[in-house]
Amino acid sequence: MDKLLTRRDFLEKSGGAVAAGLTAGALSKLGETAANAQVASSRSAPSDKVIIGFIGTGGRGRYLMSAFKSHPDVEIAAASDLNSRHLQAAIGVSGGKAKGYHDYRKLLERKDIDAVVVATNGHWHALPAIHACQAGKDIYVEKPLSLTIREGRAVVNAARKYNRIACIGTQQRSSPHYQKAVEIIKSGLLGEIGLVEVWDVEQQLPGFGHPPDCDPPKELDWDFWLGPSPKVPYNPNRYAHHYWFWDYGGGWQSDWAVHHYDIVHWAMGQDKPVAAQASGGKLMIDDNRELPDTFSGVVEYPGYIMSYRCTVANTYIYENRWNAKIFHGTNGSMILNRGGYAIISETVGGKKVIEETRVGGVDGDGRHQPAFVEAVKSRKEPPNEIENGHYSTVPGHLLNIAYRVGRRIRWDAAKEVIPGDPEANNLVGRKYRAPWKLPT
Description:
CATH architecture of the largest domain: 2-Layer Sandwich
CATH topology of the largest domain: Dihydrodipicolinate Reductase, domain 2
Number of strands: 15
Number of helices: 14
Radius of gyration: 22 Å
Order of helices and strands: HHEHEHEHEHEHEHEHHHEEEEEEEHHEH
Strand order of the largest sheet: 14-13-12-11-7-10-9-8-15
Structural class: alpha/beta
Helix content: 25-40%
CATH superfamily of the largest domain: Dihydrodipicolinate Reductase, domain 2
């Protein structure tokens, strides 16, 4: 007789702590060890205001500025952007208190700044984060941590070398319903889990078009924006839709999906893949993006596999969720996203919802940023420490590498190399355009 999960099983097995929801403080310690519970500091913790500078002040950067600004112990003192219109808008968000900088390195020279928020586009995450650590600043870095795996490891190494508080902006970790869902999975309530499905679907039809190369807008420093990436003419889509060009991003599988991978790793207790394979193509949209509009792949781990799929020409929202993940267990399954979770017993005759929580799209913003501020003050580990962010960024990069070389690749997580495949391993890093160099 099949062992099916009933509501009574759920209530009995999960216990009062899970049913009521564990505290954020208790859950944030899952997986902590005594060795990394306390992060050393090269200076004393700020006793009053935490002085923050922002590197990258586009839409997400200004949103985060507003979130940090609301904290009573935060003072926003500086902002940097290569787009003068973005920079002026950010100064306005700060109430005119932030000093603007074109070159982020000038911002980092200020001795009064305690921490920086890196909210640039993805190909500019690693260098400012590393330079901030070298300058003695704590860092909050938006996801993905890096454009390549090698860059991500360099950020982690810098945070360790310079004893910095370092956090990635995967704010779902700070959302109570994600914390509760992870505890349910860890409790064994769903049974043995061998498959986790992850997806992002979106409607981008008719696409971005084929605008010609042209002069950059006067407010943008295009050469500096390209930075370590190859020098190419300005194209409106390369700038506005940078996620879909290999020199600056890796599509949703290496950007949006970092949120998913982070929760999967946390729940499954295993964040070291052993192999990946992927396929896809430009199958439905005609525009000048380089990445596929349809993508599917599998990341293999010891004990389970994680599938990922994405389409940006979608007309059907799978399971009524445009992005989510399903943990398939021998007793039941859990579907989880920012809108809540549902625990389901799946049978030949259909499915039965055992427990469901709807939370109205809460993703952890409003909790994650204050937690970083408190970590800066206490010198204790933040809610999602930077190495977790690195491991959560790796699966998307591996999927893209497998797609680009057209075959299954193996991954040596200890050495962070793709063994026996020089072509694929070359994509673990990237060549920097002079004069930029990746510190090691």
